[in-house]
């Protein structure tokens, strides 16, 4: 009980913000929350399990498309569509993970990049099922028990999604599974010698985070009420990568900070410098990689360390003054 | 008195690397609670033998039995679960984690709750996580790293890193612990401390197998020594017996080569 109140507080705070905002702000806010959700999962996959995979955003698309195809083309009720889509995302993730996790570094990156590219091709060539280049539109969230969840109420759904993703990933990170993931990344040979099944750990981490991305995609499907190949383009996964690098690789807080910063940056910069904000992105990215590989969380750690040092030396001075006095 | 049953029994162990016979038809037994030294000149096949017993490489022929069960075809990670753990000659810590977490990785095979329990945060998952942390502190204390329990791994000296390797291995509750040149790179004071720790491990009933270059260190520590040369066992016995064995003396002076040429 004691441990759940910060979560409840976060839920209430983050949800109430939605009710105070207009529909445009709500739209921005919802997408921000979704980016945070994706960045958290990608941080686990890339930052903690150390898998240089570029398929994360594709699973977001896979979740979105499959739930929409479920309720429209197949005419399923929403709960069934959600369940089947989740299982489908998991199955595809396993299918990709089993051969791909045999690969490391550069080769895993290539294999998952190929998968991401293939996904876009399939969306474009999917004919009636995927709606081709135009994608799918003209659907909306089906009523649930006579209720229609719209406006700020749907934003609450996204808040719940984001907080659940955060809670799940934090718990996994602080468990034997999180340690196994880090161990398998840091030193696979030593991890295996300690009894960690390195391959199984990698497959699990990939499948879990990809399924979480798929869930986020299902929720996204009813934000814009349209899905098309352009939305799930390859450049998005690189934005995710930038988010976790700028925030601080391997840290959930870093993923949140990075996602907030990079998602909101264009809103601040566009009125000032127009489309040149991409240039600022690139520049910030290069500077971070060169000078602060631990990202903004690294800067934060350094500041905290300096502060506690300052406090300590201050305390020392006080102590000296007292002994003199 | 009946002959005690060996914990580890190696029969006809052979490993080829292309045309090179690194280990040839080796028989070896390790008994519970004993300290067995495996020595030999460079290229004698010590490291290959070690790697096969640790499950890092598969034998070309022969079999390894542990507690009467064959380990043939078992993946590396299955060895720790069965009770065989190793240390590395060049320390291989998990750099991104603290000392405590490093040791807790050693407990991986003993954690019985599933991922769903972690996700739901069940009482069992939390209790077993707490217990794992307590046990980790115990082993950190045992090797004398208590002052560093919360420190990042990067702050440890080489010798302390070796102690961390040992704590991490012990956390797996092994019945057989393999040491790959544990004294390499340590100061003489650290070697003394290490010998004490290894004796303490054996005293708990854990069998110890070590390969070592440092002869004074090994001879003072091991109860039994097996000598390899050119992949074959040329002698075994107490440290004193082995040191007086003409075949061993010859091997170390390099005269055996003549016979093989």
Kindly describe this structure.
The complex is a heterodimer of chains A (325) and B (261). Chain A is mainly alpha-helical. Chain A has 14 helices and no strands. In chain A, helix 2 (23-48) runs parallel beside helix 7 (151-173). The longest helix of chain A has 30 residues, at 295-324. Chain B is an alpha/beta fold and 261 residues long. Chain B has 11 helices and 10 strands. Chain B is globular, with a radius of gyration of 19 Å. Classes of the chains: A mainly alpha (325), B alpha/beta (261).
Mean pLDDT of chain B: 91
Low-confidence residue ranges of chain B: 256-261
Low-confidence stretches of chain A: none
Radius of gyration of chain B: 19 Å
Derived structural class of chain B: alpha/beta
Please tally the β strands of chain A and state the result: 0
What are the main properties of this structure?
heterodimer, A: 325 residues, mainly alpha, ABC transporter involved in vitamin B12 uptake, BtuC, B: 261 residues, alpha/beta, Rossmann fold, 2 domains, 6-stranded mixed beta sheet, 4-stranded antiparallel beta sheet, 11 helices, 10 strands, 39% helix, globular, disordered C terminus
Task: Write a compact overview of the structure shown.
By secondary structure, chain A is an all-alpha fold. Chain A has helices at 5-20, 23-48, 56-71, 78-100, 106-125, 127-130, 151-173, 176-186, 188-193, 198-220, 235-247, 252-273, 277-291, 295-324. By secondary structure, chain B is α/β, with parallel strands linked by helices.
